[in-house]
Amino acid sequence: MDKNVLIQYVDMVEEIKDLRRRIHELEKQIDRIKTEGTVKDTVSGGMGGTQHFVVEGFPVPEYSRKMMLLRSRKAMLEEKEAELLELTNQVEEYIGSIEKSELRIMFRLYYIDGLTWIQVAHRMNRMFPKRRISYSEESCRKRNARFFEEN
């Protein structure tokens, strides 16, 4: 296992967030179709196309397409979440194999919890208040970079 597991994990988390956002938007569109209920259209016909009729009804084809898309996206989300769970185990295994406790904590905060480097620095400073030199965004980022240069 190497750092690619961490990168893949972060990418998959973002992919799942995007998929959830798309599902939410689709659900809003379906709700809008349900609340508005009917659509109207004017058609010409009869007597050589001179008569005009107003046709009103529920948009069944559009509703059906969106429901089918929603079901497929929800199935995809379940599949991705199962993959993410497996990947999370691999990431935690990889982070657990790092020798230095300080780096393990940093990596969990950044990669698993999804914090920014500045947030990681603040958390580390709270965890280790008696440290002579406090953590900064740059120091955390550098430690990450150095770790991967060495390994």
Automatic annotation (TrEMBL):
It comes from the Bacteria. Residues 9-36, 70-97 form a coiled coil. Keywords: Coiled coil. This is DUF1492 domain-containing protein.
